[in-house]
Structure formats: C-alpha cells, structure tokens
Amino acid sequence: MRISLPAAALLASFTLAVSHVRAEMAIGGFAPAINFFEPDAQGIATPSSQVAGDVTMLVEPAFGVYEPNEQVIYVSDFRGQALRVYLAFARGNVAPLRVLNPPVMAQTRASAPVFAHDEIGIIISNCCIATWPLHAYGDAVPRVRMIGWGGGSGSQTDLNNPLSLRYLPDTDEYVVSEYDRIVFHARTDGYDDPPTRRITGAEVANTISLAHDPATHRLYLLQQAQWDGTSPTVHGRIAVFDDSVSGDALPLYTIEGASTGLDLPPGDYFTGIGHDPYLHRLMAASSGNSADSTRNRVAVFHDDAIGDATLAHEVEGGGISTGSPGTPFAVPTDAIFVNGFDE
Length: 343
Fold this sequence. Notes:
Blueprint: H1 5-18, E1 23-27, E2 33-37, E3 43-44, E4 49-52, E5 61-67, E6 72-77, E7 82-87, E8 98-100, E9 111-114, E10 119-124, E11 128-133, E12 145-147, E13 164-168, E14 173-178, E15 181-186, E16 197-200, E17 207-213, E18 218-224, E19 236-242, E20 247-248, E21 253-255, E22 269-276, E23 281-287, E24 297-302, E25 313-316, E26 329-332, E27 337-338, E28 341-342
Parallel strand pairs: 3-25, 16-20
Antiparallel strand pairs: 1-2, 1-26, 2-4, 5-6, 6-7, 7-8, 9-10, 10-11, 11-12, 13-14, 14-15, 15-16, 17-18, 18-19, 19-21, 22-23, 23-24, 24-25, 27-28
C-alpha cells in the first residue's frame, strides 16, 4: 500500500524543503560519546561537537535516530541498557530529557520512533521488538506489545538475531535485518505473529545493517561477504531494493567495486549504514579488528550512486569513536519548517 494523495503531497513539500537544509553526520558507538561532523568533513577529522560527559549518562550509544516532529534524538545505549532521549540541538555534557530502562530491555540495539502513533519500537535483548509509548520513561513502564524471539522458541516471528530496525510509514511495518534475510512485521503484531513478508535469497545474505528512504521507497542493505582466507580484501557492497518487494528478490542495483572503497581489509568489519534525507547521502561505518580506533571509517556516497561509484568523501580515525563506531545518522543544524509547521 502506498501513501494517500494528501500524505504524498506533504511528503513532496517536505522533500523540497529538506533539500536546502544543512545537516551534520552524527555517530555514536561503543564509547560514551555521540560525535557530530560538518557535512564537508574529510579524512582524519575532529568532531565539530559532541554529546559527552558524565551528565549524559551515555555508556555505549551504538544507535541513534533523529525524530523531526519532536526535534529530539533517540539513542539506544547498548551496554547502558537504556533508551536515552536528547534535544537534537543540545551539545556538550547535557542530561537526557528522559530515560527508558525497564530491565527487560537489556542490551538494546536499534529503535524506530513512530510519531504518528505515539509509539517507539526497540530491539531489546538482542532478540525481539518491543513497543513502548513514545514518551515513556523510567524502569517500570509496561510495554504496549512485543514481537518475540523466533529462534527455536516455537514462535513463527522469524526473529533470531535482529541487527537493525526501521519503520515503514506507508505500510505501517517494522523492517528488521537478520544476517541472512530481511523480515517485515506489522507494527501491531503480537508475540508469536508471523512476518507480513520477507526478502530472502543470496542477494540479501551477509546483511549487516539497513537504511530506508521513505521518499523514494528504497531500502539500502549494507553487506559484507565472508572472507575466503586468502584474498587481500573482503567484499562489501550496498544492495538497493524497493521497500515493497518480498521473496527471493533481486536488488534494483548495487553500489560495489574498486572505486567505492567498500572492500575492506580482512578483519575490518561494517557496523552500520544511515541515510541522510537532508543532503541525500548514504553513510556506511566500519571498524578495524583491534582496539586501534584510527581504523574507524565512514564512507559517504550520494544516495543516487550506482555501481562502481566514487565516494563523495570519507571520515576516518578516532574522532568517529574511541571504540567501535555505531550507525551513522543525520541531524539538521536547525529546525525544519514545512507549510508553517515544524517537521
């Protein structure tokens, strides 16, 4: 199901508006800071600003997402076992607006705010998708619902080790990347409900992370092949699918080849991909196989790149994160206004 005409018109006006907005690349990781970079950051770069310090309560902010209606950042704190919410334009040693940390959350990966339904979906305990009220906080808030683990539990959910999570507003679905498949669930699914659909087959194998552009209905799958033990590089690529497909599908196209810089040295690994709707960029983060943060890297492409495309630019080094980096995301430098309303 595609969006209605009024919604499509609003989306078109939003797309037009954001095309003129400056945005920073934000990225956390397995170190207690979220780092922000100017759009033209290149090479071994120092963050233009941070959210960091004891007041932030951050431990390992591996995943973040900007929510434009509220102008806040939702941060999944992996080892901190919490969802922390910050004002999008606040920087420095700032306290979260609120913290959601029920014990069931455990190590949390990604979150997907659903402003239209006043909810947020979160990957919890590395296994399941739990939904809470969007403005919930504290350690005793009951869940709205949960889609349970399907890995040997007798459940049909097809969730085993979900790596990333996005929300598809047109179809009211969550989409999750598993390593060997892409799984879609209705937002309102219960504990044992089967997926609404799946993308399966060789073309989605080895998926590390996914990003989504609702304006173009594109899913961007960041993939890393298994190393054969002898090659000087490990093949990486971004496979692009229409967000309505299912089954053993072929990508619309891929971004891969020598010019892309997506082939990594053995031992290096991808950590996440984000889409920037403001500057129309794809941001793919990777890390080295040691504690040496100088090998951290974010490869940045125009989101219409195809094939053996040249990088738009790349950011490298410990400024990305002093630990393994998380998933990059975009934060506009100012509030966006569409038809007189905040977006």
